[in-house]
Amino acid sequence: MPKARAGKRPRRERPEGKAPGILFNTGAGQHILKNPLVVNSIIEKAALRRTDVILEVGPGTGNLTVKMLEKVKKVIACEIDPRLVGELQKRVQGTCLANKLEIKVGDVLKTELPFFDACVANLPYQISSPFVFKLLLHRPFFRCAILMFQREFALRLVAKPGTKLYCRLSINTQLLARVDHLMKVGKNNFRPPPKVESSVVRIEPKNPPPPINFQEIPENFKIAEKIQTVLKDTGFSEKRARSMDIDDFIRTYETDSNVC
After folding, report:
1. 41, 88, 213, 225: which sits with the fewest CB atoms below 10 Å from its CB?
2. Rounded to whole angstroms, how far apart are CA atoms 137 and 122?
3. Which residues, including other chains, have CB under 8 Å from residue 195's CB and lie 6 or more apart?
4. Cα–Cα distance measured from residue 139 to residue 126, given in angstroms and rounded to the nearest whole number
């Protein structure tokens, strides 16, 4: 009697957020940009050049990395997760792109940044603020940075004087750079999707920078308190900090010799 043919076992779909052998750590900000249209749009807005050296932070599985490698001289990718480093290496292994990729393994906030022409990255959102200021204090100057941020953080970066979102982050960033909101990116463009919406921002450092040495400002420096004590001396007694523009703040900084 012939054996009954066993029915085919139903195909198990890989759970959302997994790559082969990898479970993404969303607590560490691992949300992989999966939409090729968004990837291409970011690259287009970065205006990459054939001679460029690009810094990328948090390359993940390399969706953005590979597209940039096709257009530039070199990509320096900073990744803290050895598992994702392996995935990225496998993706370019045996191709002409492999020689154009340099991977630095470790915490980018604790690493001295190399020379680069532009920075293009889908950042882990929890390092957004410290990385932006590490970037803006980097020398020599780079041309621009095209960065993905949590939407609220991005809107604070570009906020204008007198608006609800205008804050210390807005002031400090705009003192050192020109900042523009480029596009919104919905959460479903990532795998796994984050809990928040995202935005892409362009940051172009001011060269020369304003006459302020941010590295000498104490970590506990309270800009709002300082402003209130010097507003009268600078002739802005009728203004509140939230309505002051960047030129106003430069004058405020210059008034206090202990800061500038």
Report:
1. 225
2. 20
3. 187
4. 24
Q: What does the mean pLDDT of the chain come to?
A: 84
Q: Report pLDDT digits (tens) over 39-96.
A: 999 999 999 999 999 999 999 999 999 999 999 999 999 999 999 999 999 999 999 9
HEC string of the chain equals CCCCCCCCCCCCCCCCCEECCEECCHHHCCCEECCHHHHHHHHHHHCCCCCCEEEEECCCCCHHHHHHHCCCCEEEEEECCHHHHHHHHHHHCCCCCHHHEEEEECCHHHCCCCCCCEEEEECCHHHHHHHHHHHHCCCCCCCEEEEEEEHHHHHHHHCCCCCCCCCHHHHHHHHHEEEEEEEEECHHHEECCCCCCEEEEEEEECCCCCCCCHHHCCCCCCHHHHHHHHHHHHCCCCCCHHHCCHHHHHHHHHHCCCCC
pLDDT tens digit string along 131-179? Answer: 999 999 999 999 999 999 999 999 999 999 889 999 889 988 999 999 9
To the question of pTM greater than 0.90 for the whole model, the response is no
Q: 121 with 56: CB under 8 angstroms?
A: yes
Q: Which residues contact 217 (CB under 8 A, 6 or more apart)?
A: 259
How far is 85 from 62, CA to CA, in rounded Å? Answer: 9
Is the dihedral angle over the CA atoms 198, 199, 200, 206 positive or is it negative?
A: negative
**Would you state the pLDDT for residue 247?**
72
In contact, 136 and 212? CB cutoff 8 Å: no
Return the number of other C-beta atoms located less than 10 Å from residue 64's C-beta.
Answer: 28
